[in-house]
Amino acid sequence: MSTVTLYSFLFSLVGVLFIGISVPLIQGRVPPNRYYGFRTPKTLSNPDVWYRANHISGIDLFIAGALITVSSLTMMLLAQRWRPNQVATTLLVVMVFSLVGVAWHGFVVLKRL
Predict the structure, then answer these.
(1) Taking the domains of the chain in order of start, what are their residue ranges?
(2) What are the pLDDT digits (tens) for 50-68?
(3) Closest listed residue to residue 71, CA positions, set 48, 32, 98, 105
(4) Contact by Cβ (8 Å): 91, 7
(5) Residue 70 and residue 66: Cα distance in Å, rounded?
(6) What percent of the chain has pLDDT over 90?
(7) Long-range contacts made by residues 54-58, C-beta under 8 angstroms, separation at least 24?
(8) DSSP character for 63?
C-alpha cells in the first residue's frame, strides 16, 4: 500500500466518522449536554434552540464529512503520482476549511434563533 493510499484512506475514515457523528444530531437524539453537539451558552440554556441549532449543524457536519470522504477517495484514485506530503496537506486543508465552515454557519444560524 502506497503512502498516498494510506493517507487517503485515513482521511476518508475521518470523513465517515464525521458523518456518523452527525446523524444523531440531525435526528434530534442528542439532548443538551456538555460533551457532544453545538455547545454554547445559548444552546445549553434553551432545549428548543439546542435541537434546532444541532439539527442544522448536524446537516453541515454530514456535508463536511461527505466532502472529506469524496476528496479522500478522489485523491486515492487520481493523486498516486503526487508526493505524500502534498496529498496530506491537500486533504488537511479540505478538512479544516470544511470544519471551519460548519462552525461559522452554526454561529450564523445561532444568531437568528
Answers:
(1) 3-112
(2) 999 999 999 999 999 999 9
(3) 98
(4) yes
(5) 6
(6) 99
(7) 54/25, 54/28, 54/30, 55/25, 55/26, 55/28, 56/105, 56/106, 56/109, 57/25, 57/102, 57/105, 57/106, 57/109, 58/22, 58/23, 58/24, 58/25, 58/26, 58/27
(8) H
